[in-house]
């Protein structure tokens, strides 16, 4: 986190805002293609559904993991075609399955018999992907308790698919979000191999392996990502060699968006309180736990500071102790790595403004995309420079900004 004094902003505004660096998405994608060449990414829309993000990734050629009717609607409305979507939620409301059927979204996950019955009633063309529970003990957010079939019931479930005349095309798993152990992927890929073998024996034509999400995406992600990729590539070569004809996809969320978003929040109130003989700063900022800062903690030293979100709820404490230089009312704090599970989880509790989002694109990328007719964004879809930043402000997170401010539609 860093601080900017109020003079850096020529506009008199307190509304928090994100700058979404679309160049960062592009760089992440290039790295993905180089490092995991066999794995096609299907971006997990749940992680951050900002339209400029979806448009950019669609242009770059990713597919999309959608978890609901609303996410499918959004992605289709932005020009994505149905075969580039996997409906990757194992427990879906029936109306959402019907919607997927009418829109030609056929690929979907399941993990229990009850889901099969719904699918067989509403979407007979579905191409099913069996999600298995895998070891997620080394991940920040565990998913296998809620989702995924246990190995002991895999065969019975696949037999039920046969009885219902449903087509199963593959296996998926998720090692948990914020995974810290590359070996979790290796074990899960091996587990998936066993399920493939069982399904092939039952007569299914298995052609898809979906290795889920869990990849790091904040700044400094590279070392861990490269380590994960090495282990994944080796495990794929061992258990699903290229000549097996199996298509491998993944559902990265955090990987693509975390470092691309930087949040600017306004310090709109301040109190200095004494704790023993220490001056402790209490800051009240224009976004908080009920907004983009629902999953944030900080780390660096100066004055002990307590940072509160804007709402009347005392739960809205962004951090209880953060050591930072003193700032003043009117100053702004910049918080980076704010792309994953932030804007999508915001509420408008107390009617405080939600953070605006200003997607920005560097001139060079803009020119490359425009020249090759690639980029579906017209300038109205992204900012060349957010209005608050017309002053002498230097955000190291940003690409070189275009000089003219533009309208933002997001
Ligand atoms: N796929 C599924 C089914 C998920 O539930 C999630 C996150 O919860 C993701 C993909 C994205 O995970 P991550 O952001 O860790 O890449």
Describe this structure in words.
One of its GO terms (cellular component) is cytoplasm. The chain is of the alpha/beta class and 410 residues long. It has helices spanning 22-35, 51-60, 69-77, 94-102, 113-122, 154-163, 183-201, 222-239, 254-257, 363-371; strands at 2-4, 17-21, 39-44, 63-66, 85-87, 107-110, 127-131, 139-141, 167-172, 177-179, 208-210, 247-250, 261-275, 278-285, 303-308, 317-324, 332-335, 356-360. It has two domains: 2-20 and 260-389, Lyase, Ornithine Decarboxylase, Chain A, domain 1; 49-252, Alanine racemase (TIM Barrel, Alpha-Beta Barrel). The strands form three sheets. Strands 1, 2, 13, 14, 15, 16, 17 and 18 form an eight-stranded mixed beta sheet that branches. It has an eight-stranded parallel beta sheet with strand order 5-4-3-12-11-9-7-6. It is elongated, with a radius of gyration of 23 Å. The two termini are 25 Å apart. It binds pyridoxal-5'-phosphate. Residues 44, 47, 65, 88, 143, 174, 177, 212-215, 251-255, 340 line the site of pyridoxal-5'-phosphate.
């Amino acid at each position: 986190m860093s601080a900017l004094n109020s003079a850096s902003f020529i506009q008199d505004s307190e509304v928090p805002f994100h700058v979404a660096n679309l160049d960062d998405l592009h760089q992440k994608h290039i790295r993905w293609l180089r490092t995991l060449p066999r794995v096609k990414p299907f971006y997990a829309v749940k992680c951050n559904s900002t339209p400029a993000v979806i448009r950019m990734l669609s242009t770059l050629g990713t597919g999309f993991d959608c978890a609901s009717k609303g996410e499918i609607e959004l992605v289709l409305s932005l020009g994505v075609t149905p075969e580039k979507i996997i409906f990757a939620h194992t427990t879906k409301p029936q109306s959402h399955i019907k919607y997927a059927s009418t829109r030609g979204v056929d690929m979907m996950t399941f993990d229990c018999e009850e889901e099969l019955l719904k699918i067989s009633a509403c979407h007979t063309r579905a191409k099913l992907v069996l999600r298995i529970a895998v070891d997620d003990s080394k991940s920040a957010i565990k998913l296998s308790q809620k989702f995924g079939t246990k190995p002991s019931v895999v065969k019975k479930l696949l037999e039920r698919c046969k009885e219902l005349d449903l087509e199963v095309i593959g296996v998926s798993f998720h090692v948990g979000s914020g995974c810290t152990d590359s070996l979790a992927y290796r074990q899960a890929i091996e587990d998936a191999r066993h399920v493939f073998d069982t399904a092939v024996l039952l007569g299914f034509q298995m052609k898809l392996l979906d290795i889920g999400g869990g990849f790091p995406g904040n700044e400094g992600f590279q070392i861990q990502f490269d380590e994960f990729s090495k282990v994944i590539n080796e495990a794929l070569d061992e258990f699903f060699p290229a000549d097996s004809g199996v298509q491998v996809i993944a559902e990265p969320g955090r990987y693509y968006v975390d470092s691309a978003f930087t949040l600017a929040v306004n310090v709109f109130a301040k109190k200095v309180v004494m704790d023993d003989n220490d001056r402790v700063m209490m800051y009240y900022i224009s976004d908080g736990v009920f907004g983009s800062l629902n999953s944030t903690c900080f780390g660096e030293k100066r004055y002990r500071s307590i940072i509160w979100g804007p709402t009347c709820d005392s739960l809205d404490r962004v951090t209880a102790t953060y050591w930072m230089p003193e700032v003043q009312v009117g100053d702004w704090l910049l918080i980076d790595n704010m792309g994953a599970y932030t804007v999508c989880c915001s509420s408008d509790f107390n009617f405080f403004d939600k953070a605006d989002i200003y997607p920005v694109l560097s001139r060079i990328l803009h020119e490359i995309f425009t020249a090759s007719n690639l980029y579906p964004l017209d300038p109205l879809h992204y900012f060349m420079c957010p209005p608050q930043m017309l002053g002498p402000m230097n955000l190291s997170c940003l690409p070189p900004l275009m000089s003219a401010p533009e309208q933002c539609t997001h």
